[in-house]
Amino acid sequence: MKAEKEKKAAVLNKTSTSTKLLKGMLDVCDLSPSGTKAQLVERLLDFLEKPEASGTRASSAVGTGPPLALAAPPARLLRQGPAARRSL
User: Fold this and answer.
1) Domain tally for the chain?
2) Against a cut of 0.70, is the pTM above it?
3) Which of 4, 16, 35, 88 could cross-link to 39 by cystine, CB 3.0-4.6 Å?
4) Three-point CA angle 16, 9, 37, nearest 5°
5) Is residue 52 part of a domain?
6) Rounded mean pLDDT of 48-75?
């Protein structure tokens, strides 16, 4: 398993994968985007092997609200009455 991870890290370090792209991926995963390219790759691969919620973002609240289709209609539609809602 370690050899496979080292192989993936080597590929990411050698390819034209930019640090900007790596930092974007780390940001999406709610991981620190600081460090050298090798550190960024290591951090990303560690997370992908064993993802854990950091609890620092709204990512921990994903899926806790009502589905969008069941959300309350905008207040302006409620004030305008049923005829305005039918036009949607």
Assistant:
1) 1
2) no
3) 35
4) 60
5) yes
6) 63
